[in-house]
Protein: Glutathione S-transferase dhar3, chloroplastic
Amino acid sequence: MSTVKITPSAASLSTTIKHLASIQRPRLPNTIFTNSFAKFRAPRRAFTVSMAASVDTPLEVCVKQSITTPNKLGDCPFTQRVLLTLEEKHLPYDMKFVDLSNKPDWFLKISPEGKVPLIKLDEKWVPDSDVITQALEEKFPEPPLTTPPEKASVGSKIFPKFVAFVKSKDPSDGTEKALLDELTAFNDYLKENGPFINGNEVSAADLSLGPKLYHLEIALGYYRNWSVPDSFSWVKSYMKSIFSRESFINTRALKEDVIEGWRPKVMAFMSNNMYVQYPPKAGFVSLHAVVQVLGIVNVQFYWVEILLLQAFDLMIHVIGIT
Structure:
């Protein structure tokens, strides 16, 4: 295996973790430290590997590094989609953690746009989860994960509706309803065609949607105190089935990483719109700054800021301060 060795610094560390998903190796200690690389052996998993999916050298995959815990996978749903595909096809792989807040030079050389996921196939670095998963399906066709074209887009509108809702500054702006409409359609589809998108077997569409629903569950639960309604029983059962798969457990991000990953997106949107809707008046800039700081600590203070600014705006009009 060709491995790029980077000398870690205090600000940037790339760690390679060897994840052996399907091949038997001689017995080794559970943890081996070699210079700046920590290599971990994955637990043995009992399954049959087809000849078509058998590879001798683990595939190299560049992934987002956790921002909360060293040497852990970060919170990118598109990266998890690729890792899920590798897991479901029982392909061994090496994860190369990349600090996306301080991208190392070696990573920018192979990924000029600085994006993950990135996988090395036939000595070439391939970007984009759509391209990667298609390439894996063609190169390693067993077990097949292809979703029929007429079903490939099922549930695909849920994620953008979730993003709009989690960033929403107005609870009555229709973003929640838009999400509920998509979940209703998906629930009805699963009721007639489930338990998975392509029937009884997991397919590529599930491996794409699953990580996004995982983010939806965590982010909306934390930032909106919102969860998928119990009336969507087929959706909830679907999520439970996907989230409990061994492949998903092996590749999911920490809950803390999902929360922190969405924090700047949620807070930036709220703060920007706050200034547009409620520009601070003269003499009250310091108050706005204080509640902005509180908002960084907990997004729930956003609504406190709205109420305070509305109250002060009313007082300003009453006493005639401009």
User: Anything to note?
Assistant: Confidence is low (pLDDT under 50) at residues 1-53, 274-300. Residues 118 and 265 are 23 Å apart (CA to CA).
